């Protein structure tokens, strides 16, 4: 179960990025990639056993994976 601390981390991640970024030319995929990387950073900082590569692979649509 997530805690208040987790919700605060997510809120801060979202607050650091202008989600409606079409004015800046960012595509929805770029927004999702940016947020995915920031979330992975937060999880890795919280848990030294966090498997960043596994998370990024799971969070990336198959048509985008390289």
Summarize the structure in short.
This protein is 59% helix and 0% strand. With 66 residues, the chain is mainly α.
How would you portray this structure in words?
The protein has 66 residues and is mainly α. It has one domain (4-59). The protein is built from three helices and no strands. The protein has helices at 4-15, 28-46, 52-59. It is flat.
Please render the helix and strand layout as text.
Layout: H1 4-15, H2 28-46, H3 52-59
Helix pairs in contact: 1-2, 2-3
Structure characteristics:
3 helices; 0% strand; mainly alpha; 66 residues
Please, how many helices?
Answer: 3
Order of helices and strands: HHH
Q: What's the average pLDDT?
A: 81
Overall 3D shape: flat
**Between the first and last Cα atoms, what is the distance in angstroms?**
32 Å
> How many E strands?
0
Largest sheet: none
Strand content: under 5%
Oligomer: single chain
Please tell me how large the radius of gyration is.
13 Å
Could you say which structural class the secondary elements and strand pairing correspond to? mainly alpha
| Helix-residue proportion | 55-70%
Low-confidence stretches: none
Count of discrete structural domains: 1
